[in-house]
């Protein structure tokens, strides 16, 4: 089974790239993060997954093993196909998806086009207990670090200031990842750190 593609980028958009591998051009549908790694003429190595349908095979490309693992978990949800699973990872980071599911927070997913309230609730319900299954070694430890106490209160405060819930969720995940732990931080501290993260354009 094809698991990795390494080659030179021939063409790239925000959602697709053509990668030359020994004279063969592989067209890959990309996550947002994978697309950011690609530029014409650059050699890249992307994790990948092949999905077959009546229309033919589709090759999906990912920046890392976590993205691929989250994509595969999304595919296990009733009613979620490759196109919609990819849209989730084009609209959110893999870390933000894991955070939303781990918190049981469907509103963290509804900012993605094509993901309504019911679909978001189904994703959280079906994956909350098994999201960590199949993640790369060590990822479960990182997820524990990403759990931010009082995150709902912080995100509501940020929403009242005009920030999108998805952006706020990603900012909290970035804070937890950078610091390694947010133990001892109060709501006001988290809001200030999140504002700094959001205003930095991260």
From TrEMBL:
Does the record carry DNA-binding as a key word?
A: yes
Molecular function terms, GO-annotated:
ATP binding; four-way junction DNA binding; four-way junction helicase activity
Q: Where is the Helix-hairpin-helix DNA-binding motif class domain?
A: 72-91, 107-126
Tell me which CDD domains the record gives.
UBA_RuvA_C
What do the Gene Ontology cellular component annotations say?
Answer: cytoplasm; Holliday junction helicase complex; Holliday junction resolvase complex
Q: What does this protein do?
A: The RuvA-RuvB-RuvC complex processes Holliday junction (HJ) DNA during genetic recombination and DNA repair, while the RuvA-RuvB complex plays an important role in the rescue of blocked DNA replication forks via replication fork reversal (RFR). RuvA specifically binds to HJ cruciform DNA, conferring on it an open structure. The RuvB hexamer acts as an ATP-dependent pump, pulling dsDNA into and through the RuvAB complex. HJ branch migration allows RuvC to scan DNA until it finds its consensus sequence, where it cleaves and resolves the cruciform DNA.
Homology family: Belongs to the RuvA family.
Complex formation: Homotetramer. Forms an RuvA(8)-RuvB(12)-Holliday junction (HJ) complex. HJ DNA is sandwiched between 2 RuvA tetramers; dsDNA enters through RuvA and exits via RuvB. An RuvB hexamer assembles on each DNA strand where it exits the tetramer. Each RuvB hexamer is contacted by two RuvA subunits (via domain III) on 2 adjacent RuvB subunits; this complex drives branch migration. In the full resolvosome a probable DNA-RuvA(4)-RuvB(12)-RuvC(2) complex forms which resolves the HJ.
What name is this protein filed under?
Answer: Holliday junction branch migration complex subunit RuvA
Write down the species. Dethiosulfovibrio peptidovorans DSM 11002
Q: What is the phylogenetic placement of the source species in the record? A: Bacteria, Thermotogati, Synergistota, Synergistia, Synergistales
């Amino acid at each position: 089974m094809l698991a990795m593609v390494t080659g030179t980028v021939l063409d790239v958009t925000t959602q697709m790239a053509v990668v030359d591998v020994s004279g063969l051009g592989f067209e890959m549908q990309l996550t947002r993060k994978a697309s950011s790694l690609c530029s014409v003429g650059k050699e890249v190595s992307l994790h990948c997954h092949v999905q077959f349908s009546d229309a033919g095979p589709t090759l999906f490309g990912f920046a890392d093993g976590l993205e691929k693992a989250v994509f595969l978990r999304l595919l296990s949800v009733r009613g979620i196909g490759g196109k919609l699973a990819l849209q989730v990872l084009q609209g959110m980071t893999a870390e933000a998806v894991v955070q939303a599911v781990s918190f049981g927070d469907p509103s963290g997913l509804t900012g993605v086009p094509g993901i309504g309230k019911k679909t978001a609730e189904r994703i959280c319900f079906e994956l909350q207990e098994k999201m960590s299954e199949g993640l790369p070694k060590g990822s479960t430890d990182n997820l524990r670090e990403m759990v931010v106490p009082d995150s709902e209160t912080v995100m509501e405060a940020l929403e009242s200031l005009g920030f999108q819930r998805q952006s706020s969720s990603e900012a909290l995940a970035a804070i937890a990842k950078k610091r390694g732990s947010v133990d001892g931080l109060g709501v006001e501290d988290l809001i200030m750190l999140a504002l700094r993260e959001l205003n930095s354009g991260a």
